Amino acid sequence: MSLFKKLFSTEKKETLDKGLEKSKTTFFSKLSKAVVGKSRVDDEVLDQLEEVLVTSDVGVDTTLKIIERIEARVARDKYVGTEELDRILREEIAGLLSETQTGAETEIHLPEISEPYVIMVVGVNGVGKTTTIGKLAHKFKSKGKKVVIGAADTFRAAAIDQLQVWADRVGVPLVKQQMGSDPASVAFDTLSSAVTQQADVVLIDTAGRLHNKVNLMNELSKVKRVMQKVIPQAPHEVLLVLDGSTGQNAFEQARQFTKATEVSSLAVTKLDGTAKGGVVIGISDQFRIPVKYIGVGEGIEDLQVFNKFEFVDSFFKLES
What we know:
Low-confidence stretches: 1-8
Radius of gyration: 21 Å
Helix content: 40-55%
Number of helices: 12
Number of strands: 8
Mean pLDDT: 87
Strand content: 5-15%
Structural class: alpha/beta
Shape: elongated
Strand order of the largest sheet: 3-2-4-1-5-6-7-8
């Protein structure tokens, strides 16, 4: 049995395998065509591999890094057979992820502090931000933490309504105001309520409009300033939610939001049902921001803590 496979629960691993099925099937179909008739890894195979990685949404810059690493191994070992390519790719990609992912898992851990730990969640509309907040609330509550959610995306009534559904489902309080209210005001009320309730963690939703970067930056900055009137260190974490199924568009979203605010962690959603799972590798590498969660299904438990070894193992479908 693979060393990786001993580390994870069977149920969680099966969910991840299923969630990445389309990505890995598409990837290996392309890879098989790239090495057909070839017994060793040469320049032609590497050129083909480069195209496979780019078209699998790994991204150009990250692809070039991977190719350079494999070229170095070929130069060192003199002869590398194509049957070894899966293993080498797995090792080099795991090594690349290790540069931004310290430890196997990078889940948000709540430190021992005297005030609520504030997580501001950002991302464009439609990426699964509300669902991610609901599932995170469930994760924290299941660990015995007291959670408060703030509906500071006041530009969409649907966002407030969806958060209420999740808050009711998970059984945590939601602080909200009317649609069109000042988002910073909602954030202020949420933190004030969390302090009064002696909550452990606060999840703040924010508006996901990218049509004007200056407005976005100003709005997020204002929300942060107002939160700091209640809790000086807030937000302790800025979690950017990206839709993995959008492939290269997710890179652009990451670019815009990292310019607008100091993003400290990532959640990549909707990886099930898409062939674009390679985007996780590229985004982690290019933005040097740890991916902490990935969405691989609709269930409340299907927002998984990102584990680089588990992810690479599932992506390259290792056999026992």
